Amino acid sequence: MTRQDALFQFLLRMGDNTLILGHRISEWCGIAPVLEEDIALANTALDFIGQTQFWLGYAGEVEGKDQDADRLAFHRDAWDFRNVLLCEMPNGDFGQTIMRQFLFDAWHSIFLGRLLKSSDPRVAEIAEKASKEVAYHLERSAGTVVALGDGTEESHARMQAALDYLYPYVGEMFLSDEVDQQMAEAGIAPDPATLREEYDALVARVMAEATLNIPENRYAHKGGRDGYMHTEHLGHLLCEMQWLQRAYPDAKW
Q1: What is the CATH number of the domain that holds 182?
Q2: Which of 102, 118, 120, 210 is 20 to 30 A from 10 via CA?
Q3: Does the predicted model carry a pTM greater than 0.85?
Q4: What is the pLDDT of residues 41-73, one digit of tens each?
Q5: 155-191 CB burial, b ≥16 within 10 A, e <16
Q6: How far is CA 8 from the centre of its chain?
Q7: How many whole angstroms separate alpha carbon 63 and alpha carbon 67?
Q8: Residue 131 located in a structural domain
């Protein structure tokens, strides 16, 4: 794998994470429990879609095949996506959505912090723009996890169930492969494995305040980052997200 190929795969991973999770969150628009949460979730989704434009736009330039962000988003099949499995997991109830958001935000904030010092100026620039938004995402999702986890008996039970369900998908964010090794050697991005200790400390602090128990099993579902094995949920998501562009290729408003 050449350095250019590795950079392309890295950018796809960053852009696909925000694209898929952004779409997932957008599914709450108009049906969230209260108006304030409806607006907050919609704004978070918009933040992610905006970040996707930068990541996939740069990926298209690196690939050199005249694919812009829209084409990479709407014209690839499931096996070509490189998002972690956590991002494609279904919304479930509001507690599951917020727990998924926090588990991703905690990783995202740490990773973007490292990318601020990337040897690639474009990567550092995108990280600088995104990190401001993600700092707010983390503050909000962590606060909501605590409020619900340390809330009523029912909200606590739902948050614990959400954590138990989603935690096996956390480990994939810290797996390393040839792409990660090349990015680390070039100083473009950190080796994900080196971030686990900081992540665990952050999650432990929030879960302790939320009176939630972190599962002891560190088994990690994997396959999303290399497209090897996505869940069935991604296919259904793409069917909805890509329908218009697939039905009317290159349509313009």
Answers
A1: 1.20.1260.10
A2: 102
A3: yes
A4: 999 999 999 999 999 999 999 999 999 999 999
A5: ebebbbebbeebbbbbbbbbeeeebbebbbeeebbbe
A6: 17
A7: 8
A8: yes
